[in-house]
Amino acid sequence: MSAAETRRQVLYWRLLARLFDPEEQATLESGSMAIVGDLGLPAALLDPSVSVDTVVQRFPQLEAEFDGLMAEDGRLPEDDRDGEVRRAALVSKLLLNVFATGTGNVTAEQLQRWQSDAGWFERAMGCEPGELRGRSAGNTPGLGQTLAGIEGDLVGRMRLREVLADNRLAKQLTPSMSLIEQLLRDKDNLDGVALANAKALIRRFVDEVAEVLRTQVAQASAGTIDRSVPPKRIFRNLDLDRTIWKNLPNWSPEDEKLYVDRLYYRQTAKRIEPARLIVVVDQSGSMVDAMVNCTILASIFAGLPKVDVHLVAYDTRALDLTPWVHDPFEVLLHTQLGGGTDGTVALDLARPKITDPRNSVVVWISDFYEWQEQACWDGFQAIHRSGVKFIPVGSVSSGGHQSVNPWFRQRFKDQGTPVLSGHIKKLVTELKNFLV
Questions:
Q1: 420: which strand partners?
Q2: Kind and range of the H or E element at 362?
Q3: Is 106 exposed, middle or buried (0-12, 13-18, 19+ CB in 10 A)?
Q4: Which among 27, 196, 226, 412 is most buried, taking Cβ atoms within 10 Å?
């Protein structure tokens, strides 16, 4: 084993030791300190109490090294032994700060520092900060789920009500899906300053996610042309290439002219009647991330012309949230997380909203662990057979694929309406192609 390989091994053994036991191992600590010093790196890299932000502020030249550090295109040449040791030191810093979170109560400052360090970790993976944890629907579900789980644990260990009651501490909180879930669960127990700060955090998160989703809606395909409507015969719709091609037999070599006996126009007509989008959301605790994303998405589509959006939330009771569909912040404040799951009550509320099946789409967001399985399935089948475009959704976030009831998953697949899960762009494209 070469000297460089030995040094790398010391750094990684020290990392593993600290991840599983916060107590320092004297030999590994002293060996790692010597290696870091020999590389010209700051000793703060070995101190888990020092944030990556602080390290970069003190040593700005390291920022570029952290960016893309663990991305596939960030690998060093095999013969760069010292570079690999240096890389091991930087990777160890990120992994230790993000994955060694200790036990006991967590302060607002500690949560904010972890979120910042997690952002650096995501940058090292070649992603945007917040991407793996779900804010912009990233591409690494397993890792994203782990990070979201750690963040959720930290939020759960906070004395959240005390933090929210202190304006200074509340301002230090960075909105995240885990934090929003806790706020939604606890909102009925908050009042005064704490409630105002909770609402401000929810509003910030909604606005941030909405900005991302609006971009995805704008980038998605714009729907299909209605071929049943004849093209409008105006100049801007003239299909010049097709007109020339179709009239080529009329070319006169003697006159050197193309005689056109028919003009061809592009078909541009789209939907005339407003399409109806009915979003049904399971508001049980296991579906929080999908509920937040799809509630915001429904509000965005509600702002488009010729789209009539209705929103229903349910657990063992169903609630028509359509009056607030344009404001996802108000929708979230009206939801009540937890409880059982009985989709039949939502079916009773949603079915009367289907007045023109061929011009309607139902998006049903749930893990489908239903109390009355057969009754729900019969209702879903009836909606699908009526001509409605039925889209069952299990998960639309980067936090991992939701655990969907396999009984329903197989039946949806057999019906030709497989459960959509994973990247929210899939749902955006499905909806925009149908609605616009």
A1: 393
A2: strand 360-365
A3: buried
A4: 412
CB 151 within 8 A of CB 173: no
Extract long-range pairs of 7-12: CB within 8 Å, 24+ residues apart.
Answer: 7/35, 7/85, 7/88, 8/84, 8/85, 8/88, 10/35, 11/35, 11/85, 11/88, 11/89, 11/92, 12/88, 12/92
Written as one letter, the residue type at 49 is S
The dihedrals phi and psi of 235, each to the nearest 5 degrees, come to -60, -40
- What is the residue extent of each domain of the chain? 3-157, 171-223, 225-271, 275-433
* Burial 157-186, CB ≥16 within 10 A → b, else e: bbebeebbbeeebbeebbbbbbbbbbbbeb
Residues in the chain with pLDDT values less than 50: 135-140, 271, 398-401
Length in residues, the chain: 436
pLDDT in tens, 109-127: 888 889 889 989 989 988 8
The topology (CATH level 3) of 275-433 is Rossmann fold (3.40.50)
